[in-house]
Specification:
41% helix; 11 helices; TIM Barrel; Biotin synthase; 323 residues; alpha/beta; ten-stranded parallel sheet; Aldolase_TIM; iron-sulfur
């Protein structure tokens, strides 16, 4: 085992967190990649146990977003050919939620396109949350764009437990992927949700042209915010977006990124999210290198694995599904 890996293991074993310089040294060290994965897995099991948290989403409002995020199929600035529709009816959301619950999912998120919702649509989402609380045992999450403290309080009162709002990348790289709003706008919403007493799910996308140093910076920014649920998306280049021809990152680099996130934030749910099919057979490796959460089913505009396929894979690896 390399000197830096031994140092990091000892530090984490003693209950201390690694710093930025140590994470960079770890990322640049000549070491056996399997040793890094093994340490990340060991730390994950120590802090989070042997269980994998499943969540699912519904794309409850699609397309025509006024923001210009360069990776996003739902931006109205690009011609991507995705379906566009207004907010779904409550019954449509209930049907999807109940189907997912039956499959073994225990967290369900209502996701809407756009920078934020109109007051009318926001009220409808509140009604959805009340109905879901009444008719399912699911833990409820929402991703509705920017949010005031008052709106966050209303969501919590309706029965929401978690709010999802990604930072997408680190502060220094953010202007490369969007200029219709700022990184600080996203931080403002995250802090509003936290202030209202909601748990925040916040992560980002890798493979947008950033380097490993920027990914590590993102991990430290998430740690500083106190985030304990971190979805890691792998860019799925969408035809018609500015990142259509982005160079794909190697599967081993993706798993290495996951391991580094785990060692930087030992106590978080680090989740596979969109784009994980890019890993191919290495998807399984992620569960042995720091992943302990997974978004199952379809994503916003792309198709994912079936819930049953993911549950089978998790159990074959020797892990349990959270109940």
């Amino acid at each position: 085992m390399s000197k830096i890996l031994k140092h990091v293991e000892k530090k984490l074993h003693n209950g201390r967190l690694i710093d930025f310089e140590e994470a960079i040294e770890l990322s640049e060290a000549s070491l056996e990649i399997e040793e890094l994965f093994h340490l990340a897995d060991k730390i994950c099991k120590k802090h989070m146990g042997n269980k994998v948290d499943l969540c699912a989403i519904i794309n409850a409002k699609s397309g025509k977003c006024a923001e210009n995020c360069k990776y996003c199929a739902q931006s109205g600035h690009y011609n991507t050919g995705i379906p566009s529709y207004p907010l779904l009816d409550i019954q449509d959301v209930l049907v999807s939620a109940k189907e997912n619950e039956k499959e073994g999912v225990h967290r369900f998120s209502i996701v809407t396109s756009g920078g934020n919702l109109s007051e009318d649509d926001f009220e409808k989402v509140l009604q959805m949350i009340v109905s879901l609380r009444s008719e399912t045992n699911l833990r409820l999450c929402a991703s509705l764009g920017s949010l005031s403290v008052n709106q966050a309080l209303r969501l919590k009162e309706a029965g929401l437990s978690m709010y999802h709002h990604n930072i997408e990348t680190c502060r220094e790289y953010y202007a490369n992927i969007c200029d219709s709003h700022t990184y600080d706008d996203r931080i403002h919403t995250i802090k509003n949700a936290i202030m209202a007493g909601l748990t925040v799910c916040c992560g980002g996308i890798i493979g947008m042209g950033e380097g490993m140093k920027q990914r590590i910076k993102m991990a430290f920014e998430l740690r500083e915010l106190g985030i304990i649920s971190i979805p890691i998306n792998i860019l799925n280049p969408i035809k018609g977006t500015p990142l259509e021809y982005a160079e794909k990152i190697e599967p081993l680099e993706i798993v290495k990124t996951i391991s580094l996130f785990r060692l930087i934030i030992p106590y978080a749910f680090i989740r596979y999210a969109g784009g994980r099919n890019a890993l191919g057979e290495l998807q399984r490796k992620g569960f042995m290198a720091g992943i302990n959460g997974v978004m199952v089913g379809n994503y916003l505009t792309t198709v994912g694995n079936t819930v049953s396929d993911d549950v089978e894979m998790i159990r074959e690896i020797g892990l349990e599904v959270c109940r």
